[in-house]
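2024-03-11 09:14:02 DEBUG pipeline.ingest accepted 1 chain
2024-03-11 09:14:02 DEBUG pipeline.ingest length=207
2024-03-11 09:14:03 DEBUG pipeline.predict start
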Amino acid sequence: MFLASCSSSHIIYDVGLSKVEAPAEDASKQYYDSTKIVKSEKRGKAKYKFEDDNIAVSWVVGIKTFTLELKNKTDGDIKIPWLDAAYIDTAGETQEVTHCGDEKYLDTGSSQSVIVIPKDDVLNDVIIPTANITYDASAPFDHDWRITPIFGFPIDRKHIKEQKGSYIGRTVKIVLPIIIEGIKNEYVFEFKINDVSVKWQPFFMRL
């Protein structure tokens, strides 16, 4: 028996948090760029953190999901009404989102789509644009639902250097409403494609 080494490839998008629109005291919007956003890296994954007087939010952008870590810095409970959250794609079209929130934060007295985060607590969640979730009837029964990549642009791997320039700089947004002291504050997180590359993954075949 022999093992033959082969390889496969897929497109990797370097996507980072580039700007945050946050509510100001006068009910207008404040815009924060990289001067207010802190980037860190752990195990090869980039994490972007934004913080103001009310919340501290960290984001990790995966191939198919946005991973969110949100801390409540206020003196009381805050709420996330998920039905009002949204995803804005590269074409500027608004889509609904789904999430995988921790059940301990659910407000069982009202809608299951509202999450309550107590003072000093941290919510860990995953956000997916609902348009990226599809049903495949031909798949095995336990894999019927498929999640497509956030960015699925048709790029030729052989000519990626020539093509990637038209994709770098494109942005998407997550609109995240947060109710603080009974007032709904709308945070808008903008993510930008910084680079596009090809990742090769080796695998082995038995001969």
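2024-03-11 09:14:41 DEBUG pipeline.report The longest strand covers residues 183-206.
2024-03-11 09:14:41 DEBUG pipeline.predict end
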